Amino acid sequence: MSLHAKRRLIALAAILTVLVVPLWIVSASASKKLRSARMSTGVRTILRGERASEETARQNRAIATLLKTTPSVRELPAAGREVALSFDDGPSPYTEEIIDILVDRHVPATFFPVGVAIDEHPETIRREARDGFAIGDHTVHHPRMSELPAGEQEAEVDGQAADLRRDGAPPPHLFRPPFGVYDQDTLKILRRRGMLMVLWTVETDDYELPGQEAIAAHVLEAVTPGAIVLMHDGGGDRSETVAALPEIIAELRRRGYRLVTVPQLVLDAERASRLG
Q1: Whether residues 81 and 44 fall in one domain
Q2: Do 22 and 96 fall into the same domain?
């Protein structure tokens, strides 16, 4: 090989070194940053899960504390400008639409499903639990509890709790009696299980299909600080409820209300009472 050819090869090698080495360094750096980002994301996810678990534990302790003084709640004005939206009788295909709206707008809420509907839509209960919504017990068959003997009432409560656990929801600490009907046997059953009966401040009558404007107006006219709002995500045509929900959320926020789950409402009322 001539001296000229050798010099050309040496020059070419030098050029390649100049081009390739920085690329390798950039690539290695980018790979390291990507691994770091993935690790950070994983850590953030874990920490979010830990914080969520800690907050849930605090909420459950607040429920247990409240049960020492009352077996049920309709509203918790001590919580201040907070409102808890709740949905009964699901899950149904409308539940998925409601969850989509809530998730898109970052709105916590509380669901009270019934066992017979869970059997048809178990994946929806799993989604409710996965997305962090509060889930309470609403019986298996939606009976009027006061019309049942104590043993059958127990079966309704315990059967629904088992359905929820089977499909990935935590053990329920809340109970809503169908039709708002209960008796002393119901209260004894709930007391033994450490469950708070959750009634409501605002009844939307959405099951009567009055129209989305009427549903929204009913909520917005009747709501007060610490209110619990009753709507339905199952048991029939709930398209009007789905249509009314975005307006309800937007207007409540415009008025300065914070939207929370029922357990969060209980915890915040307890915190406010301690501070007051």
Answers
A1: no
A2: no
Last residue of a domain, one of 15, 48, 66: 66
* DSSP one-letter code for 2: -
b/e map of 141-156 (b: 16 or more CB within 10 Å)?
Answer: ebbebeebeeeebbeb
Q: Mark whether 24 and 87 lie in a shared domain.
A: no
Q: Which residues are catalytic?
A: 88, 232
Domain count within the chain: 2
State whether residue 24 is helix, strand or coil: helix
Taking CA atoms, 179 is separated from 67, 113, 146, 175, in Å, by 22, 13, 11, 12
User: Do residues 81 and 188 both lie within one domain?
Assistant: yes
Give CA–CA dist 151/57, Å, rounded.
30
Q: Is 193 exposed, middle or buried (0-12, 13-18, 19+ CB in 10 A)?
A: middle
Kindly tell me the sign of the dihedral angle through the C-alpha atoms of 249, 230, 155, 234: negative
**Per-residue pLDDT in tens (0 to 9) along the chain, 276 residues:** 554 454 555 455 554 444 444 444 434 444 444 333 333 333 333 345 667 789 999 999 999 999 999 999 999 999 999 999 999 999 999 999 999 999 999 999 999 999 999 999 999 999 999 999 999 999 999 999 999 999 999 999 999 999 999 999 999 999 999 999 999 999 999 999 999 999 999 999 999 999 999 999 999 999 999 999 999 999 999 999 999 999 999 999 999 999 999 999 999 999 999 886
228 near 88, Cβ under 8 Å?
A: no
